[in-house]
Amino acid sequence: DYAAFTKLRLSLLVVFSAIFGYLIGAESFTIANLIWLSVGGFLVTASSNGFNQIIERNLDRLMDRTKSRPLVTGNMSVAEATSLSVIFGLSGTLILWFNFNVAAALLGILALFVYVTLYTPLKQISPWAVFVGAFPGAIPPMLGWVAATGLFSLEAGLLFAVQFMWQFPHFWAIAWKADSDYAKAGFRLLPSKGGKDKTSAFLMLVYSLFLLLVSLLPVFFNLTSTVALIAFSVAGILMIYPAITLYRKRDEASATKLMFASFVYVPMVLIVWYLDKI
Fold it and tell me: DSSP letters of 194-236?
């Protein structure tokens, strides 16, 4: 129940991005620093996910993918969920503040605030929720960099930009697969009013192409080498190929392939970026 409440797998991906943002920015590091960043980042993310489930608990019971969540099944009360979310958010923010810097803590607070107060209610109103949600979703690697350096810099902005652009094909691939389930709760999150149509597939392809271009910016600014250029290009092709297939076929299998490619993309880019640095 606690794993479902904190969206454990999603939270671990967020922590991964923050850790590699930190490693890319740090001149040196200790295991203790990585542990504190992991714990602080996880708790802030868990708080965001908790508040999201509190707000959407009546909608979650309508969808197959969410009807087993603890607030829906009654395994967790709203009072317990609220207490946990507050404790997670406060403790995670304090960990980032006292172990790193105020800027990192403020980024954590900003991500939590936008996710809970803007993205979550907007999901019930407009597909623009995906755009709004991309902002808190792109903060983790930038937060990691700022935690390491205490600075907002070009590298921090590029880390943010890559993860920001990645979220569109990533989330739309998920929304394509879950479209009928989302519809039960009134969520229309694909970019086209027609839902799973050629326009949505085209936009997923366009944003996959944009993602590749944004991912090459570190090379353009001489922050990474030619080896990284090759690796980033390969990662981009892994995203673009299933996006082309989805545009041609508009089927579930292609959306699934794009979704799994997106799971590989960010770890691949961040790991290569870090290895290229060292």
Answer: TSSSHHHHHHHHHHHHHHHHHHTHHHHTTSS-HHHHHHHHHHH
Of all residues in the chain, the percent with pLDDT exceeding 70 is 100
CB 134 within 8 A of CB 127: no
CA 106 to chain centre: 18
Q: Is the CB of residue 169 less than 8 Å from the CB of residue 210?
A: no
Closest Cα to residue 240, out of 192, 215, 207? 207
179: its two tokens: 């479209």
> Angle 114-42-231 (CA atoms, 0-180°, nearest 5)?
90
pLDDT tens-place string over residues 241-258: 999 999 999 999 999 999
Burial zone of 206 (CB within 10 Å; 0-12 exposed, 13-18 middle, 19+ buried): middle
**Separation between Cα atoms, residue 205 and residue 120, nearest integer Å:** 26
Q: How many CA atoms lie within 13 A of 207 on its CB side?
A: 25
The pair of three-digit structure tokens given for residue 157, joined into one six-digit string: 């902005």
Provide the whole-model pTM: 0.93
At 162-180, the pLDDT tens digits run 999 999 999 999 999 999 9
